[in-house]
Predict the structure.
Amino acid sequence: MSKDVIIACDFPTAADTLAFLDKFTDEKPFVKIGMELFYAEGPAIVRQIKDRGHRVFLDLKLHDIPNTVKKAMAVLSRLDVDIFNLHAAGGLDMMGAAVEGLTRPDGTRPLLIAVTQLTSIDQKRMEEELLISRPLEEVVMQYAANAKAAGLDGVVCSPLEAGRVHQVCGDAFLTVTPGIRFADGAAGDQQRVTTPARARELGSDYIVVGRPITGAEDPVAAYRRCVADFVGQ
Ligand code: C5P
């Protein structure tokens, strides 16, 4: 699996998203579509972006009982998406059911990765609200190991956790890492940020980059800078 930069297209409408993607005339970036855009525009926006030749990570973070997730995944498998995700907190049975649901009759399926703990949950919240008293890193690694045991392909995690995830789950288990900023850029609401070059050193397989590209004066130049720093072209 080659390293790549995924642009988080956190726009409210299809028109905004397609206008943004129109700026890329020489390359076809890998695109992440999140809940806001998908709930606003439905599967049509996924098809439009795929028809333009982009790879798509559909970031819907499924979390429900196994049967419901399996059926939802079966519907989603009809979209020609490259990566889907779910919450590892749904448990091993739910993740296993998701893999079954996502697998097409010909045996192929998109990559499926798990969210471990959201970066908005810190140790204090985990202990006081969720009553999980183990160290956060231990919880993240347990969730990653569960995802691997259930047959998933990787996790969404911090670049700072990527090396440990690879130690626990193997080098082929994907680490898809948001929280990326240029050294000279604003962190915004991300708490712990890493540069594209550092994410590469730490072993991330894919970096997910939103505002440093979507909010840049020249998004194509910002994307190319990310690719050069992370992939090394
Ligand atoms: O704009 P920015 O680069 O912060 O965007 C990061 C993207 O990655 C957003 O779409 C955000 O929802 C997503 N994400 C994240 N942290 C996680 C999981 C997903 O920032 N733990």
Remarks:
- The longest strand covers residues 56-62.
- The mean pLDDT is 95.
